[in-house]
């Protein structure tokens, strides 16, 4: 059961506007997201736009809310997530009818890789105007543009999770797992340096993690790659993760493919000095960095490795499959 915490019922006088449904995480970016929501709230009231807003109360609540809102008996459900990348991921995993739901995102987290990768405006009011423009265009017969999503599956298909940015194993997953409960992240967010969290944790984790042998299989041509001493393998739907690190500079969310970016066979000390090249998107020419493109990618490792999806910890796995869900999402931008 869901309970509306804020409801706006006024209709736009000049144009009949469909009701908007908001899922709001005011705790994103250590609570600073509340200021973003206040701007959106004032805009909605000023413009007399009909809406319902639901505030998340616990981890996973956005998934529950999105699942319930997907059941609305409307031709199109306009669902808008206000929060960080974790909130967006929870919403994506709650949507049960991607044909009916149109998703808008007002980014208010510390990384906001989804919003940046999808070309969504950073200013919340500009973003709202773009969302309304998309809805009005659809009401005049212009369809919403569709974009790819990814899905990661593990435990022989028993578990799966949709992702919008990336999913991966190894170093980036370890960093994401640590960042979920990092005091460093909370401190850096308070001084508006939240993006540095991933860099600090990456350097810290690089020298303490264990590498693994990996076999990568491409589902479209069954080509096999063997990765020795794998540091990370990240299936990218967008170009950047971890607060803007361009792991796959040529990745596209409209080509029906995922880009598996990996680092392997590189001594950790040398990998440390390669980090500036990675941040500058100049790493692809360095030996040991590999990019593989395929709609389906399977990774088998010699021992359990940490798995994440959009920065959310999924578990420790040995066999994992990444699949591109081509043109899955109707995105309001």
Structural summary, described in words:
The structure is a single chain. By secondary structure, the protein is of the alpha+beta class. The chain has 9 helices and 14 strands. Strands 1, 2, 3, 4, 5, 6, 7, 8, 9, 10, 11, 12, 13 and 14 form a 14-stranded mixed sheet that branches. It is globular, with a radius of gyration of 20 Å.
What are the defining features of this structure?
9 helices, single chain, 34% strand, 333 residues
As a percent range, the share of strand residues is 25-35%
**Mean model confidence by pLDDT:** 90
Distance between the termini: 29 Å
Q: Note the main sheet.
A: 14 strands, mixed
Distinct helical segment count: 9
Can I get a quick summary?
The chain is α+β, with helices and mostly antiparallel strands. It has helices at residues 33-46, 61-69, 85-92, 113-117, 124-139, 171-179, 183-190, 196-206, 268-279; strands spanning 6-8, 20-24, 51-55, 77-83, 101-107, 146-154, 159-163, 166-170, 212-218, 224-236, 258-264, 289-294, 296-309, 312-332. The chain contains nine helices and 14 strands.
